[in-house]
Amino acid sequence: MPANTATTTGPVWDWAAGHGPVTGALSATTGALALATTGAATGMPAGWALAAGAAGAIGHTVTSLRDRLAARTIGMRAASWLLGAGWTTWAITTGPLTWTALGSLATLGVGIGAAARSTLLHEEARELEDIAATERQVSRELSAERRAIAAEWVDRVQRVCGGITLRVLAVEMWPTGTGFTIDAELPPGGVTYERIAQASAQLSADARLPHGCTAAASQGIDQGRVLIDVTTVNVLVGEIVYPTEYSPLSLHTGLPWGVRPDGREVLAYLREQCGLVVGPTGSGKTNFVHTVLAGFARATDILTWVIDLNAGSAGLPWVRPALAATGEQGRETRPGVDWLAASYEEATLMLDAAVRIGKHRKVAYQDLMARADTDLLPVSAQIPQIMIVIDEGAEILASSDPKMRKLAAKILEVIRLLRAMGIRTVLTALGATGSVLGNLMIRREAKARVCLTGGEVEGMDLSKVFPGARGLKVSQAPYKGAGFMGTPESAAGLFKSWRIKPNQIGDIVRATSALHPRLDEQSVKAAGADYARRWDTTRTAWMHDTLTTADGHTATATSETPTRPGGLNLSAHRDQQPSTPAPTPDADALAAEFMAQIDAQFGTTTEPGTADDEQGEERPAGLNLSAFRAEREDNEARQAALALLLAAGPEGTGASAIARTLTDAHGTTRQTVVGWLKTWTEEGIAVRVGSGTKTRYVHHRHAPNGPAQD
After folding, report:
1. ∠ CA(615), CA(617), CA(620), 5° rounding?
2. What are the structural domain ranges in the chain?
3. What pTM does this model have?
4. pLDDT level of residue 705 (50, 70, 90 thresholds)
5. Which DSSP string corresponds to 140-183?
6. How far apart are CA 657 and CA 669, in angstroms?
């Protein structure tokens, strides 16, 4: 058997443990018997045992007094020592091995054990009583404080609110130490909580609360109760950094958007609701948008699309970490947003794709909704919800510009039609005015509302953002990042937005890259090439202009396309060949050289399918672009197939699946798709996985070994 292996049977003794009533009595009696036997055999003077017992009794009495034990315990311990010493002295004199001596010792041991057990129970009861007494003392002191608070606020409400007499049922002190909540019963006669809520400012002034602190009344557990939240410490004045624990979130359990004055996170539930964020310049609105995007990035069932016609500034920080990580081996960093539109054209493509996705989902997922017995699409990581964040979207809806009006119509179509199919919006606005918030659709659908005031009074009509809310004043939140938030689940009240800096945005993007879901296959099919090619270089070159090297130079080439004059248009190879200036009447030699370069590059051929070909006649040598004409005919189908391969993600797809999708639109056969896939595999664009009937192809960006190097 190995040295480190041992087999134990029976009870295991803990030699470090203290004695209990049984082991203590057993130890005392066996010790006394051993000492008496040894003393009788060696002729030890009997008085020594009595002196040792007296010393032990004195020592235990001293330690018991120091530990503040009960008198019963002190007396039991001293008596045990003296009785044991007395028996030992008698046994040394008369002999310890007689039946009388042994019987008396056994009786003494039983008595000591019973007495020890009794005193132990008494000490435990005494200790519990001391603890209970301490708790009662604390409770009395706390109750006295709460009774004083209750009496003070009953008097205050009666004085300020026109004679309303409350009956306080409870006063709850906030764990953060920044205030308390009063739970009170309203008087009979039809008095409602609104009577107290509309006097919030007067109650705060009467209580001499610090600036930024309020006394806000809200509904109680029933219509005859009221809750009064009293903030005593101003937590809105300072910055609160966004939490660094980026745990996964879900659309169904709520997304945190900030904290209340009592330290509780305030959640937004956006499965069926849209969001509205109002904030003037300097109020912290852009930072709050980053808070919203951080919550979306952490959610495992949300895909985020961003429209920001102001150079895409709201979404760029969430894309740049992925752009900077392009080409790194061993890891893939996905952007924090799934699609970013910074131009009118790109925004139009995005909104059109959203409408197509929503309408297709209504048909494609009928069986799924029937099995779930719901008329709402069951949103999950496999079928994610699309949240479209539109910076200054409310201004787009109110714009009189013809282009913006077309864009506004598309936004309203998304809001109006696609709630059940899991496509919602979050709009921002610079002000809370009737012209901006006058659209009925916005007021009806955007029920998760935030108003960041920044102390700005002009154009900040809180009644338009929170109609029916009482006692809300801009002066209560004069700090950047502070304002009011209200949802159907949480009444409008003060809150503070977290502070997110660019470096933390990068950390969030990298930490949540693996959490982002991918658009479901049915939605990818409906979105088409506009979605599949959203990250193509021609559409994202402007983003690369934001990447700079350590010495401050731009890291990538500009996305500008030179203006092309009229003339020859080699559209089939525009991406491969640099554009060449068109010939001019004064540049015949340059034109001849240009044509010679084209002939050398592409060669000359005869037109297929003409009468001359059938008769075998030779055609004059010269430039012939029939190859480009044929390429243009199938280029669209080829690009659509490549887009489907890219959209398939790490799971990949097969030739049959691609052919089925392209047959109706382009008439493409499976054999053609097989040829494309073989070519792409040889060129490194695609990676073949599996064999036989399980063969599938994965785009090199999603290959297991990471994106290929160009």
Report:
1. 150
2. 21-132, 161-231, 251-532, 587-608+620-710
3. 0.59
4. low
5. HHHHHHHHHHHHHHHHHHHHHTTS---EEEEEEE-TTSSEEEEE
6. 11
Task: Give the number of other Cβ atoms within 10 Å of residue 96's Cβ.
Answer: 23
Specify which residues 483 forms β-bridges with.
452, 495
* 243 pLDDT tier (thresholds 50, 70, 90): very high
Q: Which two tokens stand for residue 510?
A: 């990298």
Amino acid at 708: A
Q: Which numeric CATH code is attached to 251-532?
A: 3.40.50.300
* Residue whose entry in the numeric block shows the structure tokens 């509904």: 219
Please state, rounded to an integer, the average pLDDT across all residues of the chain. 78
Strand partners, 429: 278
Q: What tokens were used for 448?
A: 């998760």
Closest by CA to 304, choosing from 270, 276, 257, is: 270
Determine the pLDDT at residue 327: 55
For the 587-608+620-710 domain, the top CATH level (class) is: mainly alpha
Cα of 490 vs its chain's centroid, Å: 19
Pairing mode of beta strands 686-689, 696-699: antiparallel
Question: What are the DSSP calls for 626-674, one per residue?
Answer: HHHHHHHHHHHHHHHHHHHHHHTGGG-B-HHHHHHHHHHHH---HHHHH
How far apart CA 149 and CA 180 sit, in angstroms, is 9
Whole-number Å distance between alpha carbons of 173 and 179: 6
